[in-house]
Each structure stands twice: as C-alpha cells, then as structure tokens.
Amino acid sequence: MIWLFKTEPDTFSIDDLQKKKTEAWNGVRNYQARNFLRDNTKIGDTVLFYHSSCKIPGVAGLAKISSSPYPDTTALDPKSEYYDPKATLENPIWVMVDVDFVEKFNEIITLESLKKVESLKDFTLLKRGNRLSIFPVNETELKIILKLKR
DNA sequence: GCCAACGTTGGC
DNA sequence: GCCAACGTTGGC
Predict the structure, then answer these.
(1) Minimal CA–CA distance to A8: which of A60, A46, A85, A64?
(2) Which one, A21, A24, A53, A79, has least CB within 10 Å?
(3) With contact defined as beta carbons under 8 Å apart, do A106 and A54 qualify?
C-alpha cells in the first residue's frame, strides 16, 4: 500500500531522515493509526512524508517502510514522552515500523497547493477535521501528488 | 495563541 | 452503553 505519515518537522523532519537514512517510527498513540501500521503495512510500501504543525505544511519527500511492525517499546519507558502506563511487555499495545529515506523534494508540495487540485477533493488529508497521523493513499492520488513535484 | 474537530476518559 | 468533560491535533 501507499501511506501518508505526518510528522512535525521540529521533532523529526525529512532532513533528519536523510541524515539518519532510517528511523523507527515510534510514538503512534492512536488506535486507528496503530491498526493501519499493525495490519496493513508491508516492507517496501511507499510513504509520503508530510510536515505538519509548521510554517509550510505539506509533503516534503518520500520514504519507504523497511520492517514489519514490532512493539513500540517507548510505551514501556516511564521516562519517554510516549510512555503509556497501560502498555506491558506481554501486551505492548503500540507498534512501530522502520522507515527508510527515499527522496527529499526540491520544494515542499504544500498543503495550500494540494487544496487547489480539483481531483484531490476527496483526498483524506484534505477531509474536514482529518487528524489521523497515518493513513493510506491510493495510486491515483500518489500520481497526482507526484506530478506537483518541481 | 485561537479554535474547530475529533478522540479518549470516566461517571452513571 | 451513553455522553459530558476534557485533551489533542493542526491549520491559520
């Protein structure tokens, strides 16, 4: 499948991923997003890397999923900002996947520009009140978005 | 910093 | 199982 992963660039940006080459995508604490990770991600899946809560929100580049889902151990660490007291070794509740750097776009494909595309009217990202940090993208949407690359 | 929209929690 | 209160997300 194809995915969109949101991240706040102040916390982890496409530049950080480019430097590190790969990153464990921890800290997902929403059940719907967790279920996508756990049940539907496959190694090799394309990920649209989206910068949120920042000056210029938009798709900053591409990544790919490079591991199967595995327990997100930050949920077990009381010192972690992602600590979840309900998580245990036996039932870690939350999962993560590894993500590899693929490409940083020359220019960010801004949320503003995506909104102007008529054929993206039903794109999940643009739906009213969308707050999911991980969701699937279809082939058509991916093609349309990649056409906006400069 | 504001606030709409949504998810989660907890009392009942 | 309902739903009010609360917390979070994320664009502006």
Answers:
(1) A60
(2) A79
(3) no
Long-range contacts of A140-146 (CB under 8 A, 24+ apart): A141/A2, A142/A2, A142/A46, A142/A48, A144/A117, A144/A119, A144/A120, A145/A48, A145/A59, A145/A109, A145/A114, A145/A120
- Beta carbons within 8 Å of A7's beta carbon, 6+ residues apart: A13, A49, A50, A51, A52
Confidence at residue A79, expressed as pLDDT on a 0 to 100 scale: 87
Residue corresponding to tokens 């190694």: A43
Residue A137: CB atoms within 10 Å: 19
**Residue range A37-63: average pLDDT?**
97
pTM, entire model: 0.94
pLDDT above 90 for A43: yes
The residue type found at A55 is K
Footprint of strand B on the protein (CB under 7 A): A 30-32, 127-131
Q: Residue A5's closest CA among A63, A74, A86?
A: A63
Q: Any idea which nucleotide's C1' is nearest the CA of A110?
A: C11
